[in-house]
Sequence to fold (1440 residues):
Amino acid sequence: MLSRPKPGESEADLLRFQNQFLAARASPAVKVVKKADKRRGAGGSGDEERPPLQDSRDVVILEDFPDVLPALTPAPPKKSKFKNACVCFDDEDPEERLDCQDRHITAVFSKIVERDTSTAAVTMPVPTGDPFPRAFHRSEIKNEVKVESGRKSIFAQKIAAKRAAEEAVTAPSAVETRHTHGRLAFPGAMCSPGSAEEEPLHSTKDDLLGKPDDGVSTQRPHIITGEGLGSLESEREALAIHEENLQKLHSMTQAEILQEQRRLLVQLDPSLVAFLKSRRGVDEGQERWEKLGPPEPGTESQQGAKETVKDFSVGGSGMEESVRTEKDTRMEITEVDLPIKPQKEWIHMNNVEFEKLEWIKDLPHPRQKRTKKGMQARFSLKGELIPPDADLPTHLGLHHHGEEAERAGYSLQELFHLCRSQIIQQRTLALQVLGHVVQKAKAGEFASSLKGSVLRLLLDAGFLFLLRFSLDDTVDNVIAASVRALHALLVSPEDEEYLDQTFSWYQGMAVFPFTPNSEEEEEEEEEEELTLMEKTPGKKSKDENKPDPDVARYDVIKGLLKTQFLHRLRYILEVLRPVPAVVLDILDILTRVARHSSEACSQLLACPRLIETIVREFLPIQWDPRVAEPGHLLTSLHGVACATAMKLIRVLASGGRNATARLLNKFELKSRLSRFIAEDPQDVPLRREEAIRLSTEAFRLWAVAAGYGQSCDLYRDLYPVLVKILQSLPHLLSDCQENPTFPLSIQRATAVVTLLTHMTQTAGCTAELQARLSSSSPGDGEQIPPPPVTWNQVSGLRPFLETSLRRSVQEISRLETWQALQPLTTTYIIYLGVYYSVCSQQPSLNPIDCLEEVERLTSEVLLPLLSQPAMHSMWDLLRPCSALCNPLSCSPAPEFLPSIVSLSCTGRKPLMSLVGSKSPFPFLTALLFLINNVTHIHKGLVSKYTSVLDFKGLKDYLLQSWPTRPPSITPSSAWILRHEYHLQYFVLALAQKMAGTCPDYAQHASLHHCVAMALLSRLLPGSEHLAHELLLGLAFNPEFIPEGKTGGPEAADFSDILHLDTSTKLAQPGLVAAGFPKPRRGVLLGESYQHLAFIRACYLSLFVHLEPAVARSQVAYQGRTYLVQSLLLPEVKGPILPSDWPFFPLISLYNKVSSAETRGAVLNSLPPDLVNTVTRNLQWVLLLETWRARVLQNISAAAKLARLMCVFLTGGDLFREGSVHCYTAALLALYCQPKVLDSLELDAPLPGLASFHDLYISVLEQFEGVSFGDPLFGVFVLLPLQRRFSVQLRLAVFGEHVSTLRALGVPLKQFPVPLERYTSPPEDNLNLLRQYFRTLVTGVLRHPWCPVLYAVAVAHVNSFIFSQDSTTQEADTTRKSMLRKTWLMVDEVLKKHLLYYKVPNPESPMGIDLYEQLPPIRLKYLQMVTKKEPKENMQMSDPE
Fold:
């Protein structure tokens, strides 16, 4: 039997016993028995029954743990604390969620370095006879040593006192036991503890080392304390380092100390420097306190009151941290300072720790601190900015125990911290305050007080996703606060108000999507990804592959949609059923999401049960009638009809005809439309204002559906209701003064008239669709069925509306009444305009009856209206209310963010703006629309409306609007300018009708043509039909260019004769292709005027790529509702046509040739149609440059020159064609005028060009290949070589393309640019000067080959070799070497030119004037350099 281990045996004995036991194979004294698993039976505990692993993952299997928890019937079910806080969806894979949330250990421990303990002292414990160290009681420690200030427990203080007592026995007496933190051990950190701005830049050596009598010891370290090195060695090591630093400082001079100080201040982090400076202030203040005692009361507060605040700066995550250096005013707390006196009877208060009771002291008065940067912004609970010196009482709840406890308010960083608090009230309060801050920031209240953008700062700090996470909270108050904050961030109530106001304007239902129009760097980063996705089918879109924060950075709505934001809002509405305020905020947020894009509308419709919940809960057929009682408190909006929900459905329907069809049919909205339209608002069991709004939104939704040709079957059912409403419209005037809901009644009436307008357009298409359907054959495919409303069913409404119009226009002289009725009157006029435009196309209508109705309307309504004095004032208001004349009226809001599109209506628009209450634009646009349709039907009435174009206010407005540069394209400006462009178009359309019929119209022709040309380059996407009409009937109309038939060409020739400037040089025969006569500019202009019809055909053929967009726009403007696909306009990225569209044929031709050459094709000849295209283009540009020069003023001279260079870059000899050559020469003459040359900036970025340098290199290569020494081509090559342009262009000619010098034979007398622009100032680029000298000496550059550049090179080389200005050694050596080589030159002619050059002279045969003899100063310098006396050569001989 094996023996057991006995006391005293070692580990070797234990190992020997173990080996003996294993060798004997004896049975163990204890047997390990595994209990069987009850779920598996008796043998279920074996490992052999364990299923094999399916993969190679490391799986930890816990023994004896069941897979399914046993049912604990008596015990209550456990509730997970985090289960409800996490949102899990059915389609999510738990394994994928675990992989996404799993983080490697390196994410937590990135770099672990073992502490160096090689120098740490190891002390052995004191040997005792006891088995364990003897425990001591704190009462045994009699002499307590005062430790450094800090919050330590009583036990820690006793331990520190015991260690200090032990060190006092063993440590030398020279080492002090007191630890202090103070001065830095290197220069630069030793500074006064005062304000950072008042701190001197450098210190003296005495300041650094300490004066003998300053009362502060220099024999102990202040920063290096030796903590962590051990109890005995820490003081010695720290003192040794301190002494070494002092010796180093003593050995340095004052200059070395200052230099080292500056170097350290540059290298170190400013926050670290500020911290070290503040620590010295703490130590010095503490030492002075010990020596001098406490200061007198009031001294500190008086000193703080004298300080001033520099400025504000927002604090928080990602914010600017203020670097403050101030004295630490902490002093020892005594019982006298406490507002509550501790009593000995209180439990555990026998030893009072005053440091822990410091927080109950009264707060000091707030002091204004001087800072390098701004102070941290603090906000009240209402989101208001609190001044830094505001002394607010503590009962307001604005003080806390964080940083700057004496200052009231919460910083953004603290609010973000509170949003993650475990206390519900803190989370709710923080979200409410942040919502108020966002709301006030959008209103621009912080623009003058804070630096930067608060909204941009919040979004960069993750505010958007903080709100998204808060929506997943389980507490109703937190959800309500987060919804409110999200509403403040996304929704602008003023934007929605103005959009509702413009809904009934001309084309007001169509709006631009609220999509950010620029993705900035994201577009560049995603080009490669997009290419890869196109190559790989089945991949998701680029935004779906990007992280949510990256998407939200440039599009907040799109980023939210990626977070299943709609599903959460649906859950809140359907399950949580919040209070009415939260419901309204959610509906507003969903409306804003629907305005984003048609894709967002599709996601709203695709969200499970979202629309069903909204329609069921907030648009019910019946509800409790008690909600209409005045004193009834509405505690829940569920089950009650809501106008905001109806508006959401209307905005969704604007996203497309398919979305509207789904809403009407799938969600049974037709029955709800009938319910809310058939009943009068005063009979609806809702509050009067809400009932009117609900009825208004129902009519607007029906109008949107009618705009697609849908829901027209309701018209027959609700016809009596509509007639009843129309009959009540004239009686609205009687309720104007008495009814407080009169503005809402006007909005409802305008919605009704807008509905009838679109219903009339739909009915007008019935005959056309019926004819197509009857004439179609089975093989023609599916035909569009006609709508269930006919023309006869809508034509009877015109008398009602015309009668109402007559009564409304009678109130135009009463300003207040007219201002209230103007929106309704505008819709009356739009309806009549639509009615008569559709009426003329109906086959069943008698044309004579239609003409008589038009004549009666003109004589009885329109002409008397135009003669009213109030109309003159309305025309005069065009210029003050115009966005083109007042660009600031559509400027972005102060807190405008590109990622959140807004119309910048926060704070409301001014009254004198385009969408203001006093704006005449909607009414005058509708009036011009009606006049155009009337004159289109009845051509004989055109002359009766000539007074419209004679209004002085209209002419002043047109004169000021067309030359000004339009505002930059933003969502706000695009929305406003679209309505202004409608008015300008109708003015021009009326002018086009008068141009051929009214003899007195010629006085307006030039002005209207300029307006048309400016409007063509300004029209925005969605108005392609208007641009097409302008190109077709007005831009190239000879009636609008009266100069062509009233002596314009002759005047141009006479101007060329009178102004004998450089432009006349291009008329020399040498610049015209051989075999062609010399044309004058007047002849070319006359020929261009005669070919205007061909020019128009050329441009229309090149704009064929716009045909799909023109067709979509034409459908909307012509009212063919059955073809309208969406009321959302195309996304705005700029105007339809670029500002340089007159050069479009040249650019198009150049792009085709470049793409062909890229594919390897060579174009040696061009077909005749392309020659004609270029000729027509040049004719049109010449005509505009001569008679409409201001139209092209927005195109820079460099851009014009670059476009004109495309003539030579077509890959062939197109420029040698006679017509092309003549017109190009004529245009070049205009571009070489002195004013144009002065404005020529080739270094500025040009639209459509990567760089002008690359274009010029292409021109040089083309010149070398196909120029054949053409002088015109040569002038284009020489133009960019002027001295003030980039030297790289000249280096390209004299370097890689030096062969061009052989063919640049432009005669000096025919060169249109003065040589002074090439020779002055002298060249200073050494490489280029060497190239000049090399080409002259080697004979590459000769006067017969290239007279212009020969004169230029001689001038610059002469100036360089005789220059005596101080310069670098290399340049001095080079110019002396050139001068010596020139003196020794064999070519006497070149030698004389280089030495005796005086000034450039184009009239001279050589292009330069020479000295007869060298000036004395040059002669002396030449003698000094050459070391000779060349007297016989100093007299210039006559040229042979």
User: Anything to note?
Assistant: Residues 1016 and 1027 are 6 Å apart (CA to CA). The longest strand covers residues 1397-1400. The chain has a mean pLDDT of 81. The longest helix spans residues 815-839.
